[in-house]
Amino acid sequence: MPAFASKGHLIRSFNKLGDLLLTFGKQNKKPHAEQKATNDYEQAVLEPYSPESVNFRSSIFYQHYGNNPNRGLMSNVEARKWYLKKEATIPNLLNPNEPLEQQARKAFELRNEFRKEARERMNDRITSDRLTREEANFTWDQMHEKTRSKLIRNGTNNPSDNEIYNEIISSSQRSRTSVNAALGLEK
Amino acid sequence: MIISKEKNSAGNYEYHLVRMGSWEFFSDFSEFFKQQYSAIPLVKDDGIYTRLWKFSCGEEEFYFEHHEDIGNWFYSSSGDGQSNLLDNIANDISSRINGTD
Predict the structure, then answer these.
(1) Which of A77, A102, B22, B95 is the most buried (most CB within 10 A)?
(2) d(Cα A35, Cα B3) in Å, to the nearest integer?
(3) Number of independent structural domains in chain B
(4) pLDDT per residue over A115-172, tens digit each?
C-alpha cells in the first residue's frame, strides 16, 4: 500500500479488514460459549453479563435485605438521615421505670435494629452489601467492654455498671462550638 | 485528657479524641487536618454509623476512623504504626483544646 493512499482505497482496505475479522470471529468462537451451564452459578461464570447472570447476582444481594418492603428506596445520605431520626426516638421508647440495665439493653437492641434497617433501605446495593459485612454490630458483652474502655479513656476510673449503662443510652460529648474555635477552623 | 494514645492489638498506636467522638466531630477534625496540616483525603468511606478516611500528609499517610459506639481516632498506616507527625498533631490538638468544656 502506498504511504498516502486515496480515500477510496482506504475504505476498501477497511472493508476487507472488517470481513477478515468477521470470518475470524466465526471460526474462533469462544469455547465457553458452547458450554452448557447446569445451574445459575455456572451460568454466571460462563456468561457473566447475560441477563440471567445479572439477575442471579442481584438475587444474592437481595438475600441480605430480608423481606423489608422499604428495601432499596433511599440514597446513602437519606438512609443516614433516616437512621439519625430513628435513633433520636430511642429515649422515648425506653421505660424509665425499668432497671437501668434493661433500658441500656433495649437502647442497644433498638440501635442495632435501626442500623440494619438503614442499610436495607439503601438503594446503593454494593455499598449496602459491603456495610453489612464491615459494619458488624457488637454483641452486648462487646458493647459493655467497649463502653467501659471509653469511660476510662474519658477520665472515669473504674466505671460502675450504672455509669456504663448511662453511657450506652446516651454518650456525653464536648461542646462543638468551643472545640471548633480552639482548632482555629475557618467556617 | 484530650487525646488518649493507645496501642491496639496489631501493635499500632491509636490516638483517640476524648469526648469528641461524634460523627460531626469527625467532620470538624477532618477539616482541621486539611486546614492546619494541608492533609489531603485520599479515601472517604462513610457508612451508616461508621466513617473511615485515609489522609495523605507530606510523605505520610494516616487513617481517621469513626464508630458511633467507640468515638473518633486516627492512626498511622505505616508498618510499625509509629509516627512523629501524628505525635505532633496529637500534641497540637491537646494544647489547642486544653481548657475548653
Answers:
(1) B22
(2) 61
(3) 1
(4) 999 988 888 878 887 888 888 788 999 999 999 999 998 888 899 999 999 999 986 5
Give the per-residue pLDDT at A185.
Answer: 80
Nearest CB neighbour to A182, from listed B19, B25, B96: B96
Chosen for mutation from A111, A138, A183 (greatest number of chain B CBs closer than 10 Å) is A183
The C-alpha of B59 sits at a distance from chain A's nearest C-alpha, in angstroms, of: 23
Q: What is the mean pLDDT of residues A35-58?
A: 70
Task: Please give the Cα distance from A99 to B24 (Å, whole number).
Answer: 31
Q: What is the pTM of this model?
A: 0.73
Residue-level pLDDT at A49: 75
Chain A contacts of B73, Cβ < 8 Å? none
Q: What is the pLDDT of residues B66-92, one digit of tens each?
A: 999 999 999 998 877 788 999 999 999
Expressed as residue numbers, the domain containing B39 is: 3-98
Residue A162 has a CB neighbour count (10 Å cut-off) of 12
**Interior angle at CA B66, CA B61 and CA B71, nearest 5:** 120
Q: Which three cell numbers stand for residue B91?
A: 500534641
Tell me the three state secondary structure of residue A109.
helix
Spatial separation of the C-alpha atoms in residues B19 and B3, rounded to whole Å:
9
Task: Kindly give the residue spans of alpha helices, DSSP state H, lying in chain A.
Answer: 7-27, 40-46, 51-63, 76-88, 90-93, 100-121, 125-134, 140-153, 161-169, 176-183
